[in-house]
Every structure is written in C-alpha cells, then in structure tokens.
Design goal:
Rossmann fold; alpha/beta; globular; AB_hydrolase_fold; seven-stranded mixed sheet; hydrolase; AB_hydrolase_sf
C-alpha cells in the first residue's frame, strides 16, 4: 500500500450503521441517492429470522457525515463502505444488497473485494451507458433525456428540493427521500460523479459471485438498454416484479428477500 492510499484510508470516515439486527448469515444493505436505510423498512423484517441484517447510511446521507472536501465519486463511496464493513470484523463472506445508486456502489465493492462477498443483489439498478454506445434510436434518445434531466436537477436547486419534499410527503415509505440544504452537496455530486459517470456494466462483469438483479416493471429510473447488456452475463439472474416502481415496496421486498435466500 502506497503512502497516499494509507493516508486516504486513515482519513476515511466511518458510516452510520442504522440497523444491525437478526442472526445468521450476514446481509449488508446499501441504500441509494437522496435516501437512507429507511429504504429497507419493508425488507429487513422479511430477513431477520434467518439473517443478520446490517443497514448502512451512505456518505453524506441519512445520519452519516462527510468530509467537506468529499467529491462523492464511486471510489469515495466504496472506500467509506469498505472502511465501515472492515470495522465490523466479519469472519465470513456476506451477501451485499444495493438499491438504486447503492447497487452501483455494491457492484464496484464486489468487483474490488471478491473474497468478501458471497452474493450480490442489485435492486432497481440505474445501469446507464453513454448514448453513443446504444444502437436502438429510442433507447439512445431516452438515455440522452435522462442525462439532460439530471443536469437540470443539479442546476435548479429550488425546483429539485421542492419536488423532492413533495414526493417524500406522497411516498408510502416515510422519510425515504430527502434532498435538502443539509445533503445538497452530497446529492449533486453523487448524481454527477457516481450515477451519470459510472462503470456499472464492467463492474458487474468482473464480479466473481452470483448476481441477482431485481427491479419493478414500472421503475422510471431503470434503463432496459443497460439491463439487456447485464442480463447476458452468465452469472447474472434478472427478476422482474410487475406493477412496482423504484421503491422497495412490499411486492419488491418479497422478491428481493427470495433472491437473497
């Protein structure tokens, strides 16, 4: 390890562990952007009879803090997750579950630390590729529209925070969405540096353990073009859940619990 890597690891903040309950094989849960471990409120009760469930708040979200200098790249998110998991001193490989942006972080972690993970479960993964890499004109136009929309959200703070507050009030899962003054920097930079700029396809391809992908057919953030690439990989199994959107509602939670095993 170089002195730079050593220094980086020494100053990496540990993330907030929001829940550590149940007993049995370990399942670690990583939520997505603008959210917290509340994401898994429907899932954890389905697992704790047979698993030890550990829910982590990502850097800058939930009750986790972040250095003022954080740029919220996928590398920074993964490093903070790595440090937090290392602090748990787990003795056996664990199942790693990521939702939304958390699935991108989980995929990178599993690719970097193959001996740590026994199974990777990606829930509602926003797997995006550059529009120029998409052959289908409709899919290419859709991907371009997503990127323009994300750029608009990053550039219009008032609109974005007001819309997020409205959607949060309407959500069946309380406090599942937050974009506010408190986490604005984490939101904007994570969106730009971990979602818009991503290497999810190559990360998933390099993972050495079984990968389960679970998503709702009504999820507006899932790009079928990216999923079609991933589902061709031999170690990937895709589960589609009818009539579910991006949230881990009861129906999606049931499917995820089944994928975890």
């Amino acid at each position: 390890m170089s002195w730079r890597e050593w220094f980086t690891r020494k100053r990496t903040p540990l993330l907030h562990i929001a829940d550590d309950s149940g007993s049995g094989p370990v399942v670690i849960l990583i939520h997505g952007i603008a959210s917290s471990s509340v994401t898994f409120s429907e899932l954890v009760p389905r697992l704790v009879d047979k698993h030890r469930c550990i829910s982590i708040d990502l850097l800058g979200f939930g009750e986790s803090t972040a250095p003022e200098t954080a740029t919220f790249t996928i590398e920074e998110h993964v490093e903070s997750v790595r440090a937090t998991i290392a602090s748990l001193a787990l003795r056996a490989p664990f199942e790693l579950v990521g939702h939304s942006m958390g699935s991108l972080i989980a995929a990178r972690y599993a690719a970097m630390y193959p001996g740590k993970v026994s199974k990777l479960v990606l829930v509602s993964p926003p797997i995006y590729v550059a529009p120029t890499e998409i052959g289908d004109p409709m899919q290419r136009a859709t991907m371009s529209a997503y990127l323009r929309a994300y750029e608009f959200l990053r550039g219009n703070k008032g609109f974005t925070t007001r819309t997020a507050a409205m959607l949060s009030r309407m959500s069946p899962i309380k406090n599942v969405l937050e974009v506010s003054e408190r986490n604005w920097n984490a939101f904007v930079l994570s969106l730009q540096n971990s979602i818009e700029s991503q290497t999810a396809v190559s990360d998933i391809a390099s993972v050495r353990v079984p990968v389960e992908v679970v998503y709702g057919t009504l999820d507006p953030f899932v790009m079928t073009g990216g999923l079609r690439i991933v589902e061709q990989l031999r170690h990937v199994t895709v589960h589609r859940v009818d009539a579910n959107d991006h949230l881990v509602r009861k129906r999606l939670a049931k499917a995820v619990a089944k994928a975890i095993g």
